[in-house]
Amino acid sequence: MKSLLATLALTTALTLPGLAMARPVTLTTTMNNYGGDGAYLALYVTDAAGAYAGSLWMAGGKSKYYEHLSEWYRATAGDTAQINGITGASVGAGRTLEITLDLADALFDAGYTLHIDAAVEDMRDSPNEVAVPLTTGGAGTPITGRRYIADFTYDM
Amino acid sequence: MIRALHRWPGLLAAALLIVLTLSGAALSVFPAAERLTAPQAETGLSVATLAARIQTAYPGVEQIRRSPPGQITAYWFLDGTPGAAVIDPATGAGVGSADPNQVERWLTNLHRSLFLGYGGRIAMALGAAAMLILSVSGSVLVARRAGGWRRWFAPLRGPLSGRLHVEIARVAVLGLALSSMTALWMSASTFDLLPITSSAPAFPNDVSGETGISITSIELLGQTPVAELRELNFPYPGDASDVFTLKTDQGTGYLDQGTGAALGWTDLTGWENVSETIYMLHTGQGAAFLGILLGLMALGVPVLGVTGVLVWLAGRRSRPRIPGNLPAAKAETILLVGSEGGSTWGFAATLHQALRAAGQTVHVGPMSDFDLAHHAKAQRFVILAATYGDGDAPETAKGFLDRLKALGTAPAAPIAVLGFGDRSYPEYCGYAQRVAEMAKTRGWNMLLPFDTIDRQSPQDFARWGRLLGQALGINLELVHQPIVPPTEMLTLVSRRDYGAEMQAPTAILRFALPRLTFWQKLTGHGFARFEAGDLLGIVPEGSAIPRLYSMASDRRDGFVEIVVKRQPSGLCSAQLTQLAPGDTAKGFIRRNPGFKPGKGRAPLILIGAGTGIGPLAGFIRGNKGHRPIHLFFGMRHPQNDFLYGQDLSDWQTKGRLTRLDTAVSRAANPSYVQDTLRAEGTEVARLIRDGARIMVCGGRGMAAGVTEALADILKPMDLTPQALRAEGRYVEDVY
């Protein structure tokens, strides 16, 4: 159900040719022990020109805190319609968030970048915690985040 | 109704509220600590200067935040490594770790959600709601108990747990109501129940595209004092389309990173302002002193919880089951009970049992259930009524007077009214008296004249029972056994005898202090804490009913002393007056907070006759601070019953007793204590003008004579004994 909705959200945003041309992708985000409460994470994609293309996942349910995910918030103006049905709980220190989504083939090797903004209560905001180009070659390679994310991997 | 609104939320939420308030009180310390330890910015320092200082120290700075208590934190990246520190605004350099305080974080999570996530937050919000209900219902109860909102801080009497409960509540209730209301607002905000939208302006599309302005050249930052700063975000490195974001107490705006131009500004919305004020009021962030104050008030809740449960348990325990209680419609004798704490139910149960044993059909119910339509077979009504506060109806009698007033014609079945109370209160049996008077004006036939029971005296009750029996033509022996607290063995160490020549043997009995258990020492129960004026209950051999004697000693004196006169057919007094040193008696302490000299330097006028000297002598013995005390003492003959005669003159030498006036009733020129009082009227009036407190102890007849004499002395001053009584400056302990 989650992956279906996720696809719908993204397809609406990107007007992809069709669902048939999608494949399941697993996004694994492991937090380091940053010593704070659960982190809010926004996972979203920008196109080759750097323009916002769509959201993949929002970890954290209170919309009043979304402004701390500043790049995502700037791109969407905090529009919660962007994350309808693809919102989950915040991710605690040392925990792992694993989500599987049906992502369109067209997103890969076409200059799209996957971003993660992170924020923790009473700690720094970390926009662009992760910014990784979506390529078939890059799949399975762990990336280290700037402040909160120990490593991030996408697997196909 | 109000009581139920107080009792049930209190009992259900007690444990939750204790966790909530203890964690809240602990959290209240942090804003104050932060305020004291955080390096503060010099007045007039601008955000531009501060930011420039920080940028010099940490070139990769991304964000600067100022907490409401004034602590400034900077976040930066240096060679790809994140860094953060608390900043000294004078230098821009880091002076401490910016990591969140782990203790504070743990307490915050406990306080807001019990570590249970969303469900925990709901539980804590319900806890806050319960606290608000308790604050409101409790306030109504306090006002009712004190006799009005204006008498909010009126002195309290009664058992310790109940007094402590009200004492703490009436100070803490404002803080608790404020904290619970703000908590509910914050919960509503967390659950997205409030229409609070962020006021951040739309992100600007038209930026100059240039980068690298010197931060000190940005006009708006130069104009904004650090005291108003909340947050300054630097543009993301390498992103020419990004901007500076400035948040202040007024609102949010964007600044071009090339030109420094303001690109948009919005003020905080009204909702945001309200929300932030509420956040401040709840957390003390930005109002540290208030926070500490609220924290201290919150500390009262655990005590309120425990004492509240104790009050409830005491009320429950004292309300007995009544076996064989007939339905209202089937009984000829209707007992109606107006009880506050529950002890009057015990008397009703005793009366019910005795009447049943005598072959009567009896129903017992609360006065509030009174309805003539339901008492079809009633031959007589008996009202047993306590009094609440200033002559108000006790809990189970609510609405009775109104129903009585609405009665068209009084029923043919006669009525008897018995009041329960404590003579040391100004409105002794005030409510029962009003019931009796109202019944009389309604033309209701009296089965018995109005009567009263002082301090749950089983003797008074037995005497009244015999009168009731006579009126009903049956033999009625009421043996009421109040719940006797655990007794201790008291060993007599010495006795001084008086009055034998006048066939009125009287003795000052001194018992050794019983050995205390560790628990008693810890809690102050039993003989661990008593003062002169408290009561010693003695349970005589062959009877379960205790007799109460006023105590003539304080715990610190190291002995238990009472004065006992042998009564003609008194079981207990006979046993006591026959004790020889080494013999024992069973006793317990009952507090008598209404009859205490109290603190302060105001003069004391002590008036007593016969054995009534007991507690008064105790007060004088304890008067090591040399407070002025004027004693009036009535005896029969100085040769025979001048109780404490030698001690009194010793105490006078030591300055503990200022003046002694005696009255001798069996002399050539007989006089009573009230006569001496009249003779010294001028001096008494002067002392009263100086704020003196009057304490009377002795027989009922003497007390009535004293009141009369005092009324005459007070008249020229436009005062009455009743007025002094209401102020708590005229108290009696009579028997």
Tell me what the structure shows.
The complex is a heterodimer of chains A (156) and B (735). Chain A has helices spanning 2-14, 70-76; strands at residues 22-31, 40-46, 52-59, 87-88, 96-104, 113-119, 125-133, 149-155. In chain A, the strands form two sheets. Chain A has a five-stranded mixed beta sheet. In chain A, strands 5-1-8 form a three-stranded antiparallel beta sheet. Helix content of chain A is 13%, strand content 38%. Chain A has 156 residues and is mainly beta. The longest helix of chain A has 13 residues, at 2-14. Chain B is an alpha/beta fold. Helix content of chain B is 39%, strand content 20%. Chain B contains 21 helices and 24 strands. Chain B has an eight-stranded antiparallel beta sheet, with helices on one face. A six-stranded antiparallel beta sheet of chain B has the order 17-16-19-14-15-18. Chain B is elongated, with a radius of gyration of 36 Å. The chains are: A mainly beta (156), B alpha/beta (735). At the A-B interface, helix 2 and strand 7 of A face helix 4 of B.
Question: Which short descriptors sum up this protein?
Answer:
A: 156 residues, mainly beta, 2 helices, 38% strand, disordered N terminus, B: 735 residues, alpha/beta, eight-stranded antiparallel β-sheet, six-stranded antiparallel β-sheet, 21 helices, 24 strands, 20% strand
Please sum up the structure shown.
The complex is a heterodimer of chains A (156) and B (735). With 156 residues, chain A is mostly beta strands.
